[in-house]
């Protein structure tokens, strides 16, 4: 579908890893495969993922995050000074029941020493596969500041101001490098904001105001050539069709929507996200990507019900500055993909495209 830089048919970035890729990563971890062999499997899998997106009619193409173990891996793999441990976290299923699952937790334990760029070589490879507009996802610096900090450990190497400044610098440098490479859309993922939507959500080691200040500093004043966007995805947690946070956007809307990005990707797939009323606080010129299609449930929504919800959202934000996407990625954690098949994933993406075309038409 030919489209403008508003990218009406959007998606959050991660896609279900094919079994062959999951097996290759397992073999690498067991010492049964070399890095270059894994890279070959990644390349082949990314080529298939690009074709899937183009066939579905999605306006913006990612590599599915196939080179990452999870949504934080870009910075974890690119820097020394970060350690990982496994902790139990309370994930909720669609019935609202809580399950304690082992989850990776990262801590900054030493001075961050950069080994390579966060997305080293990713864009160059994607450009060998397609001329379509490209999106690259990064973890928001305020999430790293909040969740990678451990009292008594991180403060032995950084003050809070020093770490905030370092994470802002790293993020700005990567965004600017991606734009220079011709990337059309850089998305920052931040599961940390959703923790402030209700009192029961697990919060990190930063206040909401600190997080907004850090993310603002990371994007403020970055020059965007025509047709280039920076987005912020407010994630509610995503693993094995389960989630972490619930609640409407009212508690955070006024300050959150002032962060100087161009697009806000908001989860609105079910009742735990509240109503559309907070969208009236989004500046009119900013684009809101409505995450109306569930990436957690295999059941396919209808085009008519999606259009009705878009019409409802348009009561609070101009319809010309709305777009559509699945509510989150399909596999934020590579080995914790959501419970659906790749064929069902394709149908979800195709529905996003079909609904966008039916709603906004072809834009040139």
Structure notes:
There is one protein chain. The protein is of the alpha/beta class. It has one domain (19-360): Alpha-Beta Barrel (TIM Barrel). 33% of the residues lie in helices and 18% in strands. The chain has a six-stranded parallel beta sheet. The chain has a two-stranded antiparallel ribbon with strand order 1-2. Helix 5 (141-147) packs antiparallel against helix 6 (160-180), helix 5 (141-147) packs antiparallel against helix 7 (208-219) and helix 9 crosses helix 10.
The residue fraction in helices comes out at: 25-40%
Q: Give the count of helical stretches.
A: 10
CATH top level class name: Alpha Beta
Structural class by sheet pairing and helices: alpha/beta
Task: Give the termini distance in whole angstroms.
Answer: 10 Å
Number of strands: 8
* Oligomer category: single chain
Q: Which fold does the CATH topology refer to? A: TIM Barrel
> What is the alpha-carbon Rg in Å?
19 Å
Let me know the largest β-sheet. 6 strands, parallel
- Sheet-strand content, in percent, reads 15-25%
Structurally, the number of domains stands at: 1
Low-pLDDT ranges: none
Strand order of the largest sheet: 3-4-5-6-7-8
In short:
The chain is α/β, with parallel strands linked by helices.
Core attributes:
364 residues, 33% helix, globular, two-stranded antiparallel ribbon, TIM Barrel, alpha/beta
Blueprint of the fold:
Blueprint: H1 19-29, H2 35-56, H3 73-78, E1 79-92, E2 98-114, H4 122-127, E3 135-139, H5 141-147, H6 160-180, E4 185-190, H7 208-219, E5 229-234, H8 253-256, E6 263-267, E7 287-293, H9 303-313, E8 322-326, H10 342-360
Parallel strand pairs: 3-4, 4-5, 5-6, 6-7, 7-8
Antiparallel strand pairs: 1-2
Helix pairs in contact: 1-2, 2-10, 5-6, 5-7, 6-7, 9-10
């Amino acid at each position: 579908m030919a489209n403008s830089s508003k990218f009406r048919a959007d998606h959050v970035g991660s896609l279900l890893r094919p079994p062959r890729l999951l097996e290759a990563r397992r073999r690498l971890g067991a010492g049964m495969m070399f890095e270059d062999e894994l890279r070959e499997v990644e390349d082949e899998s990314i080529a298939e993922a690009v074709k899937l997106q183009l066939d579905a009619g999605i306006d913006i193409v990612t590599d599915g995050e196939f080179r990452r173990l999870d949504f934080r891996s870009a910075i974890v793999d690119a820097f020394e000074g970060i350690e990982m441990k496994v902790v139990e976290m309370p994930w909720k299923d669609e019935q609202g029941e809580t399950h304690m699952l082992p989850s990776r937790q990262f801590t900054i334990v030493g001075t961050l020493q950069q080994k390579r760029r966060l997305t080293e070589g990713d864009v160059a490879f994607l450009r060998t596969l397609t001329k379509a507009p490209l999106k690259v996802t990064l973890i928001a610096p305020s999430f790293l500041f909040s969740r990678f900090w451990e009292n008594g450990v991180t403060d032995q190497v950084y003050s809070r101001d020093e770490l905030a400044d370092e994470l802002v610098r790293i993020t700005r440098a990567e965004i600017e490098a991606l734009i220079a490479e011709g990337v059309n859309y850089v998305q920052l993922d931040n599961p940390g904001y959703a923790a402030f939507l209700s009192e029961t959500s697990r919060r990190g080691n930063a206040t909401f105001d600190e997080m907004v200040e850090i993310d603002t500093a990371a994007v403020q004043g970055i020059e965007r050539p025509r047709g280039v966007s920076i987005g912020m995805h407010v994630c509610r947690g995503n693993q094995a069709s389960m989630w972490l946070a619930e609640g409407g956007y009212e508690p955070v809307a006024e300050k959150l929507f002032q962060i100087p990005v161009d697009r806000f990707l908001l989860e609105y797939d079910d009742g735990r996200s509240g109503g559309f009323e907070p969208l009236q606080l989004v500046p009119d010129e900013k684009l809101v990507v409505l995450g109306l299609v569930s990436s957690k449930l295999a059941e396919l929504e209808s085009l008519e019900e999606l259009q009705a919800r878009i019409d409802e959202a348009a009561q609070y934000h101009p319809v010309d500055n709305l777009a559509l996407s699945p509510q989150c990625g399909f596999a934020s954690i590579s080995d914790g993909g959501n419970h659906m098949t790749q064929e069902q994933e394709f149908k979800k993406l195709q529905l996003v495209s079909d609904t966008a075309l039916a709603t906004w038409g072809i834009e040139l």
